[in-house]
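Project channel, design review

CF: Before we commit to the Corallococcus exercitus constructs, I'd like one complete example in the thread so the newer folks can see what an input/output pair looks like. Taking ArsR family transcriptional regulator.
RD: sounds good, go ahead.
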Amino acid sequence: MAIRLLEGTYPSELAALLGVRLYTVQSILTSLEREAVIASRLMGRTRMVSLNPRYFAHAELSALLWKLGENDTTLQSKLAARRRRPRRAGKPGLL
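CF: and here is what came back for ArsR family transcriptional regulator:
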C-alpha cells in the first residue's frame, strides 16, 4: 500500500516508514519483483521500487491499494511527515 501511495520509493524508506527491519522489506520486495507485481530500477546506488505498469492487473491493484490507503489515517500521517530526499551530510538542522 505504501509503495502505491508514495508512487515510487526505496527499501530503506519503506523499512523506516513501516517500522520493520530492512532485510525483511528487501525480502518481500524481491519476492514481489519475482512475481512481476513491482518493478525496480537503479538510480545511482539506490534501488527505487514502484508498482509494475506492465503487470496484468496493474490498474485494479493500483485502485485497490489507493482505496485502502485512503482509509489508513496512521499511514497517511506517517507519509506526510516523511522527507522525500536525504539531507546533505553536515547540514545543520533540527536535532
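RD: helpful, thanks. Residues 22-34 form the longest helix (13 residues).
CF: The radius of gyration is 14 Å.
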